[in-house]
Design a protein that fits this description.
binds 2-amino-4-trifluoromethylsulfanyl-butyric acid, three-stranded antiparallel beta sheet, alpha+beta, binds cobalt (II) ion, 5 helices, four-stranded antiparallel beta sheet, 273 residues
C-alpha cells in the first residue's frame, strides 16, 4: 500500500502517532487469519499453471474471481477505494515487468515469453483478510530477470526471519535492504508492508528498508505483511493516470513477493504458505 495513502486512511488525530492503532489479535482471530491465509496461498497455486505466453491478465483475473466465489470468499481488491484512489476495478493485481504493483488486469494485456508477472491476491473470509503475492516467470526470461525474482523472494524470507517478540520493525527492513543492495538491486521506498486483519490496510507500516534496532518493537499477536518490491535500476516510481498502476521511473523491471505473518510467542508464523 502507498505510504501516504496508508497514512491518510489510518491516521486518527485523536491518537498519538506511534504505537496506537496497532491491534493484537486473539487466538480466535489468529485462527481465522490462518484459514484465509491458506486460502489466498491456494489461489496463487491454482493460478500458477495458467501463467503462460498467450494468456491475458484478464483471464487470470476472471479465474481468480470464479475460484474465490466458489470457496465462499470475497476478493478484497474489487471496489477497494482508499483515499485518493478510484475504486480498484478488478479482483487481483497483475504487475508485469516495469510495473511495480497494483497493475490492473486487462483483456488487451497478453503475457509473452520472457515477461515476469507479479500476481497479488487478497481474500476476505469470515471478516479477515489474507494478502499474498508472488512473481512468476513467463516462459524463459533472461538471466538478469530471473536473478531479480530470486533475490526478491530471498529478501522477503530474510525479512520474515527477523520477526520475533522484542525485535524491531527496522530489523526487517535492514535485512531486506542489505540483501537486495548486496545483489545490485534497489528497494522501493514509497510502498510498504502493512498491518492486516479485519481491515485490508492497518497500522503498523512495515518499510522494506531501514536501520537495525530502530522502529516499533514487535509483540506477540501483531499481524502484518512483508512485501518487498525490488528494482533492477533506481528505486524511483511513478503512478500512471489510472491512479493505481505503479511503474518504475526508469522503466526497468521490478519484482515483488508478499506474505501475511504473525508475531508468535517465540518467533513468526507465516499464514500464506
Ligand atoms: N494487495 C496489495 C497489497 O499488498 C494492495 C492492493 S490494493 C488494490 O497491499 F486495490 F490494488 F487491490
Ligand atoms: Co499487502
Ligand atoms: Co498484496
Amino acid at each position: 500500500m502507498n505510504n501516504q495513502n496508508l497514512l491518510s486512511i489510518s491516521q486518527n488525530p485523536s491518537r498519538s502517532p506511534t504505537n496506537q492503532g496497532i491491534v493484537l489479535l486473539s487466538r480466535r482471530e489468529l485462527d481465522r487469519m490462518r484459514r484465509v491465509g491458506k486460502l489466498a496461498a491456494n489461489l496463487l497455486r491454482h493460478l500458477e499453471p495458467m501463467v503462460q505466453p498467450g494468456v491475458s491478465t484478464q483471464a487470470l483475473n476472471d479465474e481468480a474471481e470464479r475460484w474465490t466465489q466458489a470457496q465462499g470468499a470475497i476478493s478484497a481488491p474489487l471496489g477497494y477505494a482508499p483515499d485518493g484512489h478510484p475504486p480498484f476495478p478488478r479482483s487481483i493485481c497483475t504487475s508485469v515487468n516495469e510495473v511495480v504493483c497494483h497493475g490492473i488486469p486487462s483483456p488487451k494485456q497478453i503475457l509473452k515469453d520472457g515477461d515476469i508477472i507479479n500476481i497479488d491476491v487478497t481474500l476476505i473470509l469470515d471478516g479477515y483478510h489474507g494478502d499474498t503475492s508472488k512473481t512468476f516467470l513467463v516462459g524463459n526470461p533472461p538471466t538478469p530477470a530471473q536473478k531479480l525474482v530470486e533475490v526478491t523472494q530471498e529478501s522477503m524470507m530474510r525479512g520474515i526471519n527477523e520477526v520475533k517478540p522484542g525485535a524491531r520493525v527496522g530489523d526487517i527492513g535492514a535485512a531486506i535492504q542489505t540483501y537486495a543492495e548486496a545483489n545490485g538491486f534497489s528497494v522501493v521506498r514509497e510502498m510498504v508492508g502493512h498491518g492486516v486483519g479485519r481491515q485490508f490496510h492497518m497500522e503498523p507500516q512495515i518499510p522494506h528498508y531501514g536501520n537495525r534496532g530502530a522502529g516499533l518493537k514487535l509483540r506477540p499477536g501483531m499481524v502484518f505483511t512483508i512485501e518487498p518490491m525490488l528494482n533492477e535500476g533506481h528505486y524511483g516510481i511513478k503512478v500512471l493516470g489510472d491512479r493505481w498502476t505503479v511503474i518504475t521511473k526508469d522503466k526497468k523491471r521490478s519484482a515483488q513477493f508478499e506474505h501475511t505473518v504473525a508475531v508468535t510467542e517465540t518467533g513468526v508464523e507465516i499464514f500464506t504458505l
